[in-house]
From TrEMBL:
Originating species: uncultured Thermomicrobiales bacterium
One GO MF term: 2-oxoglutarate-dependent dioxygenase activity
Domain of life: Bacteria
UniProt protein name: Putative dehydrogenases
Organism taxonomic ancestry: Bacteria, Pseudomonadati, Thermomicrobiota, Thermomicrobia, Thermomicrobiales
Cross-referenced Gene3D superfamilies: q2cbj1_9rhob like domain
SUPFAM superfamilies: Clavaminate synthase-like (SSF51197)
Length: 308
């Protein structure tokens, strides 16, 4: 199904510092799926077709702002916000370079209530058709002005369990094009060659016979999981379109393990807040790096050596 175009902002959109082609053939708007939110079979068909579901306004906006409030208070206390500005606006201190901040999710009761109870868990039980397990690790992003996230798929970070695993990207506040939200490469989950090659790699796997094996084993050195550092060239090579929208607090964007995505650069003076959380059927195997009271994540305990 064709997606509508996005009105061009005053200046070109960029991702990873690269100007994106905003012509209709290269760039468009995410398709909303609230029209089928009560029909699990229709949701599964649409996910299979598009590789994502965009549900504007599905989550409780007040809950989102409660989670945001806890986060900005911590950011202010740590000196990441501009002095004298309202914390809820998350205006960045010009000296801050914060980007990935999972510690802001720890002990954050409002955020955990938003992501792991209520409407979020009800959605995944409905969509997956059974009891749901969520990863215990929460990927919290507090992206200061500058470059966004490079194009990647989630499989390279969490493919040791079921492939029937879904990411929930949640904007923790309103995110316009200048603040720089997520962009999804339309129907990229159907690219079998990329799934078979790039998508089968594991960022925590390393060659034991490599000269830098000990550095990889300790986590001192590792591959960052990016498919490309040039989202414009990647799109051109694959012949697909980048899709996004101006997100609002309460929106939910969920996508497959193989859906390629990135983010727009943050061209504002604010910190962009969002979370990534993961959900699967409880009956299927889970990646051991991301579950338990103290998930091992990408630490040394999660590394796997192999002979190359």
């Amino acid at each position: 199904m064709a997606t509508t175009t996005i009105d061009s902002p005053a200046s070109p959109l960029t991702s990873s510092g690269v100007v994106l082609d905003q012509s209709e053939r290269a760039f468009g708007r995410l398709r909303p799926s609230m029209d089928v939110v009560d029909d699990a079979a229709a949701l599964r068909r649409r996910m299979a077709e598009d590789g994502y579901l965009y549900l504007p306004g599905y989550l409780d906006r007040d809950q989102v702002f409660a989670a945001r409030g806890e986060i900005v208070d911590r950011l202010a206390e740590a000196g990441h916000l501009a002095p004298g500005t309202p914390p809820m606006e998350a205006v960045a201190n010009t000296a801050t370079t914060i980007k990935f901040a999972p510690d802001l999710a720890k002990g954050n009761a409002p955020l955990h209530e938003l992501l792991y109870t209520g409407r979020m868990m009800a959605f995944y039980r409905h969509f997956l058709g059974g009891e749901v397990l969520h990863f215990d690790y929460t990927w919290l992003r507090a992206v200061s002005p500058g470059k966004g996230t490079a194009p990647h798929g989630d499989s390279v970070f969490m493919n040791r369990g079921t492939t029937n695993l879904y990411t929930a990207w949640v904007p923790l506040g309103d995110v316009d094009l200048d603040l720089g939200g997520l962009i999804v490469l339309d129907r990229s989950h159907k690219l079998d060659e990329i799934k078979r090659t790039y998508g089968a790699r594991d960022v925590d796997s390393y060659c034991e016979n490599d000269v830098d094996a000990t550095r990889y084993a300790s986590g001192e050195k590792w591959w960052n999981g990016a498919l490309s550092d040039n989202p414009a060239e990647l799109r051109r090579q694959l012949g697909l379109r980048w899709l996004t929208t101006e997100f609002r607090a309460g929106d939910l964007l969920t996508f497959t393990l193989y859906t390629l995505h990135a983010s727009l650069d943050n061209r504002s003076n604010r910190i962009r807040l969002s979370s990534d959380s993961r959900y699967q059927l409880a009956s299927e195997p889970a990646d051991e790096r991301w579950v338990g009271e103290q998930p091992i994540g990408h630490g040394a305990a999660g590394k796997r050596g192999r002979i190359c």
